[in-house]
Amino acid sequence: MRLQLPIVLGGLAVLLAPWAAIRGDAPPPAARGLPPLVDDPSLPALPTRSPRNANYTIQARLDPDQHTLQGSEVLEWRNTSGTALSTFPFHLYWNAFRNNLSTSARGEGRRAARSLDQKEKERGYGYTEVRSIRLVDGTETDLTPSIKYVSPDDNNPDDRTVMQVSTPSPVPPGATVRFKIDWTSHVPHGDVGRAGWVHDYFFIVQWFPKIGVWWKGAWNAHQFHPWTEFFADYGVYDVRLTLPKRGFVVGATGRLQEKTDGADGAETWRFMQEDVHDFAWTASPRYREKKARFDDPGYPPVEIRLLYQPEHEHLADRYLEATKISLRSYGAWSAPYPYPQITVIDPAWSSASGGMEYPTLFTGGASLWAPRALQSPEGVTIHECGHQFWYGLVGNNEFEEAWLDEGFNSYHDEKAAALALGPIGWGRRYFGLATPGRGTRGGWPVVAPGVWIGRGEGELSGLRRSGETDVMARPGWQYRNAEAYGLNSYGKPALSIQTLENLVGDETMTRILRRYARRFRFAHPTSEDFIATVNEVTGRDYRWYFDQTWFSSDRCDYAVSVKTEKARTLEGYGDAGPDGVPFLTSPRAVPPEDKKGGVWDSEVTVRRLGGVRMPVEVMVAFSDGRTIDESWDGQYRWTMFKYRGPAKLVRAIVDPRGKLAIDVNPANNDWVDEDGWSRRASLKWSARWMFWLQNLLEMHMLVG
Amino acid sequence: MLYALVQGWRLLRRSFGLAVLLLVVNLGLALLLAVPLAGVLRRDLHQMQASQNMMYGFDYPWWSQWSDAQSGWTTSFGPEIFGVGFVFRNLDLLLKGALPVNLFGARGDAGPPLDPVILGVGLIYLLVQTYLAGGILSTLRGVQGSWTVRGLLHGSGFYFGRLLRVALVALFGAWLVFRVDAPLA
Ligand SMILES: [Zn+2]
User: Fold this and answer.
1) Inter-CA distances, A573 with A192, A352, A568, A590, Å
2) What is the tens place of the pLDDT at every residue in A450-503?
3) Rounded to a whole number, what is the distance in Å from the CA of A232 to chain B's nearest CA?
4) Residue B100 is nearest to which of A665, A673, A703, comparing CB atoms?
5) Nearest CA distance, A558 vs chain B (angstrom)
6) Residue A572: Cβ-neighbour burial (10 angstroms; 0-12, 13-18, 19+)
7) Domain A1-52+296-309+319-424+443-548: which topology?
8) Would the CB atoms of A678 and B41 count as touching at under 8 Å?
9) How far is Cα A479 from Cα A470, in angstroms, rounded to an integer?
């Protein structure tokens, strides 16, 4: 008996479930159209090659059983600093995982170096130990004794992620020198950092000693922080990777040049790529391979090589299609992807390598059950592939101005996805596996019917929550916490560029980004370069806009409220009579038929609730169908518009075209004269909620 | 033969009446919170364009902002209970040990996965259900034909202590299960 009722109600619930679906389940139609790829002579010419001042020839041998890597590299480096240099910093990123004292390990956030597996703590540790570093120019000069570790960001004496060496005599400007470096690495377990191994899956990134960038008159070589990304000079990479012959499939930056068998049961894969600033690779015997070709008219053709997990066979085409969406749309909005190939990696289950970009290679991420409405793996694929255009091709300093890559990219990925796939659905996964430190993974996805998230709408919650924590434009490691880094590198810059697009117009925005992408290809541009490009293309000074958004922690929130009532008729003392005494006039009862007509007084108050000041448009509508457009400079805390006329005011909207994508509360922008809608909506949704609560109550019977 | 059929039919009718009674309790408790929720939603949608959007569909930006501003039991109103989601959410809560009163669930910094008010209503329902089960048991065992509220309450009181013990034993069993292995908790 005790179980019967829940079963009956459960059955009822299943029967009623279709009823519970929401009207208008289909997503709103997506916008159409990318700007045509036209040869615009007014645009700067694209450079045919990068400065190539940091060229690496690397040989590495992986021992997959011991999780060790023996590496040897020759770095050919040209002094483009304009000054003689005798100290040289090198990144040794894996030393973030060396022990619990590194700057990354002392930090917070899900990427802070640590071991999640308490039982096998040592598996999380890894390191890069330079055995020797020599200057090789005919004669060899051993620089190994000069090695010291520097911590320019936080003076942490225990951090070894930046190594510095000194040369006996300075390297003159314009000269090219060659450093020969031999090193040994221990590969960390890959459940926290992106680099690492999981079972027989190896993801080897940020893995070789890498020279810093001479930038703005100084060496720029930041330590590895828990959430920051990277910065490096462009060059040519020629990399030979040796692994035991055990059916490993290898994916890497660049093109496969050759594959040779060694005498010792090993095989060597050689990859080459010109004009990139990093080299990443991965190996796993489980990879399956699928290829596709992107050859839309007007674009240089690109071979897409997808390496995916066998259990994701059904998602392979979705990965490939999303990669094409990215190449197509970002190419149209900036400048086409110039490399002849791109490698897409579907990472192994339980590896933390998903969702990351490397030159000509990126990782996606997918779940076994992937309803199309949730746009996964499409969303992450479009985003990571999109990095090729900003991180990859213009190469901004991600340590110091992460938004120039992640922000631009988030702005573009949402625009591309909205255009090609429509709005994203809302879903939640249930019955996933709880994992230490990384929350619940996997699980059965349930998509909420009728709930669609439009472009940029998903970012507003973060802006409301932590928008005031930090000024957006700040070095990555100086944000107060990981959440503030995330908001100020992704969501806020994306929304602010979307807002800028709305202010200058879509077509002008494309001209801005095309110009910026072309002029600064391979050039490490800064925010100032971008602002200058905006001003140049628009012919106006938009500094005020960036002051309000990028260089501010203020929130943007405009709101509207309305008072509309019958114009008053005299009540009280009016004019004086012949005796000089004013008449007392009593209120007259208005006959019911008169209520519709008459004169109405309406007041529209627009308020600026946040610190951000933007010019805003205001639209008011009256019951006779008349509309009036107003504008306000948005500077003072509020303004008021007054109307007297024959019709009642029925609607008032501040920012009627929804230009201010950064307005944290768009709902208070739109006032309507209603009483029935909110009543009916609240009844509908509270009934739906009650249905859920009833079911929840029944669930109690299963345990009690 | 005919007698047995008639007896069976009578038993069914009697338990049907009781099922309706339980449904009334269930509905009553749910209404206890659904009515104030309707009031909150109406107040927060009043004279907003979002009210029209919410009448015909679902306004994500409005809900997102509204939800961020909520604390307490009203936070449970969101897309996860739409469509078949409500069953998944509840089963998930059950498997995570959140029912009843988050007795078996994880107690992290995040607090219980459901607001204490809703967990409290769940507890009341559990107690009422246990109480009424006694009455049901006695009416089913009784030889007389129809059941009365008085008889039910009498039976409920008579059996409550025992059934409470049974319920506690069941809860203890559930606790053991969650202690041994709670894969989703
Ligand atoms: Zn990114």
Assistant:
1) 80, 79, 14, 19
2) 999 999 999 999 999 999 999 999 999 999 999 999 999 999 999 999 999 999
3) 39
4) A703
5) 14
6) exposed
7) Neutral Protease; domain 2 (1.10.390)
8) yes
9) 6
Interchain proximity A1–B15, CB inside 8 Å: yes
B50 vs A contacts (CB less than 8 Å): 667, 670
Sorted by where each begins, the domain ranges of chain A are 1-52+296-309+319-424+443-548, 53-233, 558-570+595-692
- Which range (A513-522, A552-561, A597-606) has the least confidence? A597-606
Indicate the pTM of the whole model: 0.89
Q: Are A285 and A246 in contact (CB under 8 A)?
A: yes
Distance of CA A636 to the CA centre of its chain: 33
Top CATH class, A558-570+595-692: mainly beta
C-beta separation of A351 from A203 below 8 A: yes
Spell out where A138-252 has E strands. 139-142, 148-149, 162-171, 176-186, 196-198, 201-204, 210-211, 213-215, 218-220, 235-244, 249-252
Secondary element (H or E) of residue A304: strand A302-308
Query: Mind telling me how many Å the CA of A16 is from chain B's nearest CA?
Result: 9
Closest to A572 (Cα-Cα) out of A583, A557, A563, A561: A583
State the CATH class of domain A53-233.
mainly beta
Measuring CA to CA, how many Å separate B96 from each of A508, B76, B179?
52, 17, 12
- Whether A558-570+595-692 and A1-52+296-309+319-424+443-548 are alike in CATH topology: the answer is no
Around A40, how many Cα atoms within 13 Å sit in the side-chain half-sphere?
16
For residue A75, list its beta bridge partners: A56, A179
Per the DSSP assignment, residues forming a β-bridge with B10 are none
Give the residue on A whose Cα is nearest the Cα of B40: A682
Search chain A and give the residue with CA nearest B132.
A2
* Distance from the alpha carbon of residue A383 to the mean position of ligand 1, in angstroms: 6
- The continuous run of DSSP H or E covering A565 comes out as strand A558-566
Domain boundaries, chain B: 15-184
End-to-end, the C-alpha distance of chain B in Å comes to: 52
pLDDT tens digits, one per residue of A501-512: 999 999 999 999
Chain B residue at shortest CA distance from A563: B47
Task: Compute the distance between CA of residue A677 and CA of residue B55 in angstroms, rounded to an integer.
Answer: 6
